[in-house]
Amino acid sequence: MKKIIFITLSLFVSSVHAACPGGKTYPVSLTFDDGPHPTLTPKVLKILEEEKIKASFFVLGEHFPGGKSNPANKWAYDLLEKEKKAGHYIGSHTFHHIDHSQMLSHHKMSEAEVKNNIVRSGALIKDYLNPILRLPYGAGSFHSSNPVVQKNNDLIMKTIKEAGYKHVGWDIDTEDWNAKKRANVLPSTLKQICQTHGGVILFHDIQANTVAHLREWIHAIRAEGHTIVGLEHFVPDVKKPLPAAICEMPAPGKPISKQSEDLSHHVHQAVQHIKKD
Amino acid sequence: MKSVFLILIWSSLLVCFSTFAESTVFTTLGLGDKSVFAGIKKQVKGMEPETYILEVSFKALSQSKLDLPKELIHREVVGLYGAEKGKLLVITQRTVEQGDRPEFHLYNTQSKEWKKLAESDCLSFSQVKVEKSALHLTCLEHDKKGDEIEVIKKVDLPEMKFKVLGETTLPLKRVERDAFKAELLGEVFEWQELKVHYQKKEKTFRP
What 8-state DSSP symbol labels residue A89? Predict the structure, then answer.
């Protein structure tokens, strides 16, 4: 009877405490979207190096317009080089940060334009790329109750697969970009780790607030007993060689989306600032 | 004694197994002429999040579901502001992975019609100053060095005449007017109850 009482009380106490029920701990992998950023990404890399963490970066093709032949992109390629040398994985976050599914549903882009935005980053970053891709907003990777949206999502996922990418989503969305939830990033992350039994954590290396708190968040995750592992733990395909198809994509063009321009605006602003210095 | 343990076991299991597989939560509140409106987000793992609005009338304390236009159902309701002539401003944003441009829609509670009024390039905001026919959003952006700065962006909404003016912080978890009060209860950002008081009546709603 005493045993039953003890187990019952332990279950109850652990379920209302911040740590995972039963004192369980889980593996997690850190991923960073939307970069690289000329001043913030180097700070993220420094923290990861000091904390001995292998992370994954899902970069936007629009930070490499014109490829390596454009000297203005040197900073961005230098950062990819550093990421690769440090043992991090590099994935595509497509070219422009757009909602591909919505673009199709609202006829804002043609099917060919959407497919092109998904696959064309590969040609720009093929020397650094692992065969992984994450869709902006995850849009296209989810199931939708709306048959029109679902049809578009199916097309988007088929395009990714045919191009040779493995789509990598996430299990824990930190919403580190969101002013409304700023104070809740860490508690929410720890809670989600328990709920999802660990998994892939989503951050952004273009957010100053993320850079400012990243070390503290890493320490808090580890203090709960969780282990920070490489993406290969959850996505073994990340170690596969890059399929030839990825390297044979057309060259990029001009920005096509206001939404995407907004998101990358401060990255380009920072680059201009560095050039002036 | 036995029943106490049964309750303890049941509540522990309930918390342990209430995993992320499915969650339906309130996202924010807003006051209309005769009712309170609450944004609701339903998330099922692997599915697009879905959104609708719950309307609770002041006097009858009765609820009704307000569906969003199909182009908005996968966006989150992040702000609700009541205005004159039964108009409601609905602010929506995609909040999965990264924020997108918030969109501002007018819902006319009398004609039951929706109309898109504006969108803003303010991807991250929580402070909103309400003027008679405009909102001022305090946007978190980055300067040339990559440091975070606040930039105020005005959204002109000439079709709206807001009743309650001043500074607000989104999401709104509590609203009140005269004898009416409404409050979201539960864990922060995972509110699962809407408690409504009108005069001496009180009722709790779930999404």
Answer: E
Q: What amino acid is encoded at A167 in this protein?
A: H
Residue B17 counted as domain residue: no
* Count of structural domains within chain B: 1
pTM of the model: 0.88
Length of chain A equals 277
Helix ranges, chain B (H): 2-17
With beta carbons under 8 A apart, name residues in chain A contacting B124.
Answer: 177-179
Per-residue confidence at B45, pLDDT binned at 50, 70, 90?
A: confident
* Helix/strand/coil percentages in chain A, nearest 5: 55, 10, 35
Chain A residues with CB under 8 Å of B5 CB are 4-5, 8
pLDDT-based confidence at residue A247 (cuts at 50, 70, 90): low
pLDDT of residue A246: 79
* Contact assignment for A182 to B96 by CB distance below 8 Å: no
Cis peptide before A147 (omega within 30 of 0): no
Q: What is the CATH number of the domain that holds B66?
A: 2.40.128
Does residue B74 sit within a domain? yes
Residues A11-49: tens digit of each pLDDT = 444 444 458 999 999 999 999 999 999 999 999 999 999
Q: Is residue A1 part of a domain?
A: no
Where does residue B86 fall: left (phi above 0), alpha (psi -120 to 50 degrees), or beta otherwise? Answer: left
Residue of chain B minimizing CA distance to A266: B142
> Is the Cβ pair A178, B99 closer than 8 Å?
yes
Angle at A38 between CA A32 and CA A43, to 5 degrees: 60
Per-residue pLDDT tens digits for A181-195: 999 999 999 999 999
